[in-house]
Amino acid sequence: MTNLAKSKQSLQFKGVAASPGIAIGEVYLLDRQRVAVVEYEIEAEDISVETERFHAAIELSRQQLRDIQAQLSHHAQAEHFYIIDTQLMILDDQMLLSGTTQLISEQRINASGALKRVLRQFRQSFDCIEDEYLRERGSDIELVGERILRNIRGKVQQQITSLERKSIVVAHDLSPADTLQMDKKQIVGFVTDLGGRTSHTAILARSLGIPAVVGLENITDQVTSGTAIIIDGSSGIIILDPDSDTLQEYLEKKRRYEFYQQHLQTFCELPAQTIDGVKINLQANLELPDEAEMALVNGATGIGLLRTEFMYMSRSEPPSEQDQFEGYRSLVEKIAPHPVTIRTLDVGGDKFVADISLLDEANPAMGLRSIRLSLHEKTLFKIQLRAILRASAYGCVRLMFPMITGVAEVRACKEMLNQVKDELRGEDIAFDEQLAVGIMIETPSAVFLADLLAREVDFFSVGTNDLIQYCLAVDRGNEHVAYLYEPFHPTILRALKRVVDAARQAGIKACICGEMASEPMSSLVLLAMGYTELSMNSCGISRVKKLLRQWNAADGNELLEQLLQRSTATEVMNYLESAMRHHFPDAQVDLDF
Ligand code: PEP
Ligand code: MG
User: Fold this and answer.
1) For residue 465, which atom of ligand 1 is closest to its CA?
2) In the CATH scheme, what is the homologous superfamily, with its name and number, of domain 44-153?
3) Which of 131, 365, 425, 436 has the fewest CB atoms within 10 Å, counting from its CB?
């Protein structure tokens, strides 16, 4: 957290912008601070008492979570059940249970101290996971751990079921259970010490349309309930005790933002088409199949990326073929007749995937991850392919393999796919014989080989998040080199152009599913290159559509030619920004772009 400005009246901090919008209100400080734990040695005769305390706390935690689930069964957000399921599964985790009881009995450590040690080990393993989404799942363990610790100590959990006035909840971390139980009419924003862009608080805040700023490190130490607060979920700024000028400024920003959101609604049902008639397919990226509704409401014409990782996250062992099939099938049926692009597992490792043995890799970003892991863990891969193929009988499915680096890898995937198809045919199980098979272009190697790869598959989907990371050798999650993470770097423009040209020559489709697709200015550049299918967070669709509808695709040729001649990312940006100001003199610069 950065303390940006300090005046007599107000304090300003910068965190991670997790869910856009402005909220103004009073702090409701949720006491979810860690329970202070003192570790001490116990007498031998107290071992059974401490073990019993631990087991009783586990049982009580299980009961509490089930009660929350029962309360939620009539709740509008009941689809978020899976999150509580994850927490219930953590309570059954053998490492947690036997790890703690062993420390109690073998090292004679008190129950809270023993549990705290085990939680610390869990936390360390999660912190090493390179994938941001998976790393964030470590917070589930922390939340469950806090619950058990409170129950060992006999502390009552503070609940926020009813609030008397509009409040902004400030917490160390928010459990999904907390979020779901809240009175949404009174809660206008979330602020947390922990969390990143893909933490549960961020995901849920976005899906609830509530502004949120996360990752502020120690904001809970700076506020008390009742403190006046402004949060700007679009920029990640929060202001405590704002003076009247600041308050007026943000009231105006809030009014503009809300007006703009209403205005964007009018674009949801309109076609995504430029002035000169070029149609663009704007699709949604989903992390959870439950987000399908939101994708459709926002006017998505399909799912360009289903990140299937979530299915492997919320259970203590890999999901069965039937579970996966049912999940994919219900999504495919909801989205039909539009396509659903299902990406096979894209993780480097997951503690909860019992059958995958993780390597302790020095450089996990370049290690046994993603498609490499699937090709290594063939049984797991086959189960997923069977489930996807079976779901393909119920709508339009496209299958996609992540992090491809060469032709041999694609052929190995296709060979596996053919084996699975033969098995299904032998079992008389229906699937789409025409199922489109594509790959993600996320590595420099795939860019260089795009012409050869294009002969092997039906489509490309460019994952710009990883492509930028690997092309520019910049860790996408490392704030120290964030200044080098430049989507408009000439290397990236050339790579993107090369890929779409190779696709065009081979007569296959090329789409974009990285974050670049959701930036309105980038979308115009991508369109100029020839990308007519862009997949993004559902909330970004209307904003991109609005700009595209005011654009002449024919003007893109000259723009692109100019951009490709610039030598640095700054030169590209400068040219692009001045071209945009020229083309869209009426645009609201901070909102439309
Ligand atoms: C990407 O890398 O751009 C992408 C869409 O995949 P992920 O963000 O899941 O790595
Ligand atoms: Mg990726």
Assistant:
1) 3
2) PtsI, HPr-binding domain (1.10.274.10)
3) 425
